[in-house]
Amino acid sequence: MDAFTQEMQEKLLKEREELLRKLNAEEDNFRQEALAASGRDSSDLASDDAAYRKMEALNAMDAKRLKAIEGALKRISEGKYGICLQCGKKIPEGRLRAIPSAVLCIDCKTENEKLGV
Fold first, then answer.
1. Residue 62, SS3?
2. Secondary structure tally for the chain: helices H, strands E
3. CA angle 107, 113, 114 (to 5 degrees)
4. CA diameter of the chain
5. Distance of CA 112 to the CA centre of its chain
């Protein structure tokens, strides 16, 4: 493994650890809020419902990010990290530094966005 890939692996592992810690903390907070909600009136519960939906949306985004990180770590272990999944060309280091879990080169990502993919 070259120095750049090792650097990206360390960065991805750190991001994964922080994300898992955040998700676990949010899950604990959600449980505590749910227990505390039993004694509230309907207007408080409506407000809580909006907060829960927002938290759920954020958790879904975090779960998607976690999946992308796991995928990048798998590609590193398989020796396929930094290769565009669409065209097979090398993804520039600058793009990977900005988005370590990137699976597409800039050209393919741009083309997919134009197509609405």
1. helix
2. 4, 0
3. 90
4. 59
5. 20
Angle, nearest 10°, between helix axes 3-36 and 42-78? Answer: 160
| C-alpha dihedral sign at 73, 77, 79, 85 | negative
Q: State CA 100 to chain mean position distance.
A: 11
| Contact status, residue 76 vs residue 58, Cβ threshold 8 Å | no
**What are the tens digits of pLDDT across the range 55-92?**
777 788 999 999 999 999 999 999 999 999 999 999 99
User: CA–CA separation, 16 vs 66, rounded Å?
Assistant: 6
**In this structure, is the dihedral angle defined by the CA atoms of residues 73, 74, 79 and 85, taken in order, positive or negative?**
negative
The chain-wide mean pLDDT, for the chain, equals 87
User: Which residues have C-beta within 8 Å of that of residue 9, sequence separation ≥ 6?
Assistant: 1, 73, 76, 81
Which residues, including other chains, have CB under 8 Å from residue 83's CB and lie 6 or more apart?
Answer: 75, 89, 90, 91
